[in-house]
TrEMBL record:
Domain tRNA methyltransferase TRMD/TRM10-type residue range list: 4-233
Species of the source: Isoptericola chiayiensis
Major localisation: cytoplasm
Compartments in which it is found: Cytoplasm
Chemical reaction(s) catalysed: guanosine(37) in tRNA + S-adenosyl-L-methionine = N(1)-methylguanosine(37) in tRNA + S-adenosyl-L-homocysteine + H(+)
Official protein name in the record: tRNA (guanine-N(1)-)-methyltransferase
Length: 247
């Protein structure tokens, strides 16, 4: 099943990277119908204005709700549909995670509204939410970017690789960091087995599948405990075996 993503931005060229690599391939293969729109196409004045000064004063400009409303009315269905989500990148949103990517990947249609300046007039999200459209205000991390375009790139890439047929071997999606195990991924190695005096761990050359699997799980547990103790705290105790607890 094909997924459609509309991205609305005042810098459509920013999204050009989505023609490359796996996402580009998914588009050409018809797995992902990605359309990038210029918000200014929905302006009505000669200057194609999308912003104005903030009520209440303060620095910066705010994106106008009327322009965004015309754009979103054209792209969202008139009647709210649970399979069509409005995604609004914002540093004040819920943090976007692999779970969030999975959730978005299960939708049929996403409309991503990229803010600029001090963001979009708050009534835009308020209105579509009140009408019953699923609206996700999502942050890609605790830092501030100049616009939602990079966040849209992040989300489209994270969602795109989950679509069936995009990543060649679906097993590679299961084992990686932030996957089902709740652990960071173990370290990976390839040829040559010896490089600048550094050796690939013997067990990986042993051909002994059970031992390799145990080694990988131990390294994943170790790495996660050291780098992301918050992920260890979130693990389901039931999912750990006696050997895990020794690590
Ligand atoms: N004044 C806003 C605030 O403090 O919440 C920040 C606006 S930011 C300069 C402009 C736009 O960049 C936002 O509307 C949003 O689209 C995007 N943006 C910035 N940081 C982001 C983040 N961490 N995650 C997602 N989008 C972000």
């Amino acid at each position: 099943p094909e997924v459609r993503i509309d991205v609305v931005t005042i810098f459509p060229d920013y999204l050009a990277a989505l023609d490359l690599s796996l996402v580009g391939k998914a588009r050409r293969a018809g797995l992902l119908d990605l359309r990038v729109h210029d918000l200014r196409d929905w302006t009505t004045d000669r200057h194609r204005t999308v912003d104005d000064t903030p009520f209440g004063g303060g620095a910066g400009m705010v994106m106008r709700p009327d322009v965004w409303g015309r754009a979103l009315d054209d792209l969202l269905p008139t009647a709210p549909d649970p399979a069509v989500r409005l995604v609004v990148p914002t540093p004040s949103g819920r943090v976007f995670t692999q779970r969030g990517a999975e959730e978005l990947a299960s939708a049929e249609h996403l409309v991503v509204a990229c803010g600029r300046y001090e963001g979009i007039d708050a009534r835009v999200v308020e209105r579509y939410r009140a009408e019953g459209h699923p609206v996700d205000e999502l942050s890609i991390g605790d830092y501030v970017l100049n616009g939602g375009e990079v966040a849209a790139l992040v989300m489209v890439e994270a969602v795109g690789r989950l679509l069936p047929g995009v990543v060649g071997n679906p097993q590679s999606l299961v084992e990686e960091s932030h996957g089902a195990a709740g652990l960071l991924e173990y370290p990976v190695y390839t040829k040559p087995p010896s490089w600048q005096g550094l050796e690939v761990p013997d067990v990986l050359l042993s051909g002994h599948h059970a031992r390799i699997e145990r080694w990988r799980r131990d390294r994943a547990l170790e790495r996660t405990a050291r780098r992301r103790p918050d992920l260890v705290d979130a693990l389901d105790a039931e999912a750990l075996d006696a050997r895990d607890r020794e690590v």
